[in-house]
Amino acid sequence: MRDYKCWTAAERLASLKKTKAAIAAGIIPPPTQCNRCGKTTGRIDYHRETFCSECKAHIEKSEKIYLAELVHNCYSNAKQNKFYCVYLDLASRYIDQIMVEDAAKNGMNFPKTEFFDDELFGGRVGPVFEKANMDMNSSNEYLQNVTPIVNKMVDNSLRGKK
């Protein structure tokens, strides 16, 4: 991948990995129409070339906020399987962590999204486990077992593996 407009090759590749992970996790739908030329067949990608370098931090922050909104809406949807929301929450927390670490590697200061802090996470997942008649110990054991699986799924999605 090469540099393009204000985006370095590394930034474009990182963005592509994040987009693929979000698509694989069901966070965003795959593109069905090019938002630049309108085509609906062949290779279709999301485009960002109209953004300038000073917008990058805002874009990354917006993506993180979108994940928080998505997770919040999942828990708020009465029809949604709440364990799906737990998995989505875990994946989003991990993606947030990866984004913070990636930003630091590129010399950017990106704070963690407060929504994904442990205390707030516990407040979201606690009622799910209570409804499933799981006590604190079994809930924590469940999270300890499922978190590495979800993280590996995210990692595989970022690398384009199935």
Fold topology:
Blueprint: H1 9-24, H2 56-76, H3 82-105, H4 118-131, H5 136-159
Count of structural domains: 1
What pattern of helices and strands is seen along the backbone? HHHHH
Number of strands: 0
| Low-confidence runs | 49-59
Taking all residues together, what is the mean pLDDT?
Answer: 80
Shape: globular
Number of helices: 5
Radius of gyration: 17 Å
Instruction: Provide the structure class.
Output: mainly alpha
Ends apart, CA distance between termini: 22 Å
Describe it:
Helices cover 61% and strands 0% of the residues. It is mainly α and 162 residues long. It has one domain. Helix 1 packs across helix 5. The two termini are 22 Å apart.
Short description:
The chain has helices at residues 9-24, 56-76, 82-105, 118-131, 136-159. It is mainly α and 162 residues long.
Summary keywords:
single chain; 162 residues; mainly alpha; 61% helix; 0% strand; globular
